[in-house]
Amino acid sequence: INKNPLTLSDTKVIAILYDKFGSELFASQTEINNLGGFEESSFVIYFPKSQSWIKEVDVAATKIFAEPSVL
Length: 71
Hints:
The chain has 71 residues and is mainly beta. The protein contains 1 helix and 3 strands. The radius of gyration is 14 Å and the shape is elongated. The mean pLDDT is 90.
């Protein structure tokens, strides 16, 4: 959600997955282009399918960061 009146361009959205011990398991990012003032947008972040680490993910500990650029 863009809570500002300015259009945001090339906003990086980064997600970090953690295990139950708080250790980082994996990070991935995507980009949202030209998010208008007071608009919102859905996004998808992809992670590799790997049965070896997916069972270790603590979904509640997932952190998401956004790095916007103003147009």
